[in-house]
Design goal:
By secondary structure, the chain is an all-alpha fold. About 70% of the residues lie in helices and about 0% in strands. The protein has nine helices and no strands.
Length: about 260
């Protein structure tokens, strides 16, 4: 979408992006059509991946519209920019995520660029918070992930090896905590890492429209995705623990394990 809608994108870049997008579409198609999992997690536990995809789509779309509005303003671009600017100003206190993102700009950045970056940072951060709220509501309302049917850990967590050692529940809880902690600290840590890397390598140039859109999207989406994964893994651990309790209670009552 950024390569199609944003101005100043040459034809070669658009073709490379289209090729990468096609490869990603083929990968997802074969992943969901195959009987055996490979990389995609929670493919048989909707709407986990659907929520993440919709969040990513909305973030990229709105940020692209805002950046395009700098050259070709429209009612939607001005409304999105104003909304993001309000959120950005509200959380632009010292050491806040938006404040740290603003520090990524070069020292000679103009006021217009600062306002633009603050607007898209505020809007993307708002979308990430709304995504988490929506996911928590779906968990509460739909009883995710089981919803009355069998949950296959191997299919939905293909990179998680239950036989690697240790109790499965304890490992799921531990991995869930690690993901939640990373989701909490990444909005603060990523700008610091970029600033540290810019002293050694060429800094990320946020005045490039495509770079700005994808950098700010990753800054907001990756922590949200990790936070959701952590919540999901802890939810699965609680489900397995509850199933164990029911099984042990059945054994104590009847003297044998149900088939």
């Amino acid at each position: 979408m950024p390569s199609v809608l944003l101005p100043g994108v040459n034809a070669d870049t658009a073709q490379v992006v289209a090729l990468v997008s096609l490869a990603g579409a083929v990968l997802v198609f074969f992943e969901y059509s195959s009987a055996y999992p490979s990389l995609v997690e929670f493919r048989d536990a909707p709407p986990f991946n659907r929520v993440r995809y919709v969040s990513l789509l909305i973030t990229v779309s709105l940020l692209t519209i805002i950046v395009r509005g700098e050259a070709d303003p429209s009612t939607l671009s001005m409304f999105a920019k104003a909304t993001g600017n309000i959120i950005g100003e509200a959380i632009n206190f010292e050491y806040s995520p938006v404040n740290l993102v603003a520090l990524m700009l070069p020292a000679d950045a103009g006021l217009d660029q600062l306002v633009l970056v603050r607007s898209i940072a505020g809007l993307s951060y708002l979308i990430s918070l709304m995504t988490l709220v929506a996911f928590l509501m779906l968990i509460r309302i739909q009883g995710w992930p089981s919803r009355g049917k069998t949950f296959n850990v191997w299919v939905n967590l293909p990179t998680f090896d239950p036989s690697a050692g240790g109790d499965v529940v304890a490992r799921l809880v531990r991995d869930g905590r690690v993901n939640i902690i990373l989701g909490l600290v990444l909005p603060f840590l990523l700008p610091v890492m970029v600033l540290a890397a810019s002293k050694v390598f060429d800094p990320i140039v946020l005045d490039s429209p495509q770079t700005m859109v994808w950098t700010m999207t990753a800054w907001a989406f990756l922590p949200t995705s990790l936070f959701m994964r952590g919540i999901a893994m802890r939810r699965i651990a609680a489900m397995i623990k509850e199933k164990r309790k029911r099984s042990n209670a059945y054994v104590e009552k009847h003297g044998y394990t149900p088939a």
